[in-house]
Amino acid sequence: MRISCFPLHGLAAATLLGLSSVASAEVFDASLSQDTVRIAVNGPLSRLFAVDKGEYSVGGVGGEIDDFSSDNFFSLHGGVMLTGEAAPNLEAGLGARLQYVDADSADGGSLALGGQLRLKLLQADRLRFNAGAWYGPKASTFGDFDEFTELSASVGYEVLRDAELYVGYRSIEVGIDNGPSVDLEDGAHVGIRLQF
Predict the structure, then answer these.
(1) Strand partners, 118
(2) CA nearest neighbour of 172 among 118, 88, 114, 117
(3) What is the end-to-end Cα distance of the chain in Å, rounded?
(4) Which residues have a Cβ under 8 Å from the Cβ of 184 and sit 6 or more positions away?
(5) Phi-psi category of 138—alpha, beta or left, where left has phi over 0 and alpha has psi -120 to 50?
(6) How far is CA 165 from CA 27, 68, 147, 151, in A?
(7) Which residues contact 61 (CB under 8 A, 6 or more apart)?
């Protein structure tokens, strides 16, 4: 993994700053790919606001840009989702994220809309399927970008009831203003989710 030029201390500091504003984290999520590191925390929205459902999310990802192996990027996000049971053992969420991206000579961000699905199989109650999608069009994107897209999917197994090991795929793409679309990340990763 060649991410020595990437300011990991900046990613860690920004993530910790976001965490300091929440009373208690519920799920810590960390994943590694060949070229990237991702850290995120999700928890009940009731820890931040007087609501009885939904969740917050803060985190970041950084490493080598997939399209340009000599360049690095980092991306930070903070958002909220309304969550609930869409079907037996299927939880869904819809919400919004404020996304910031710094990709070497370009930086900017987006207000992205999207959501996620979490499926737990009845026959294999330790097996988990997760999928998410976030999209920010030109109208809600600022700085050097005119579009933002993030897609992810993973399959996990609860080694312990509060500790999941997973493998997944993530794609992060930004459209450069008056330029091409750039894949910041496009590949497989492994990770852990720890519930506190």
Answers:
(1) 91, 130
(2) 114
(3) 30
(4) 65, 66, 67, 73, 75, 101, 103, 172, 173, 174
(5) alpha
(6) 13, 30, 32, 19
(7) 11, 36, 37, 38, 39, 74, 75, 170, 172, 185
Other beta carbons within 10 Å of 177: 15
**Which tokens is 113 given?**
């809309």
Token code pair at residue 123: 């026959």
Question: pTM value?
Answer: 0.84
**Closest by Cα among 130, 132, 172 to 149:** 172
Query: Cα angle vertex 179, ends 175, 182, to 5°?
Result: 40
Residue 116: per-residue pLDDT:
96
**In the chain, which stretches have pLDDT less than 50?**
1-23
Copy the structure tokens of residue 144. 């050097």
Amino acid identity at 154: S
Q: Which residue has the tokens 């519930």?
A: 195
Structure token digits, residue 22: 């929440």
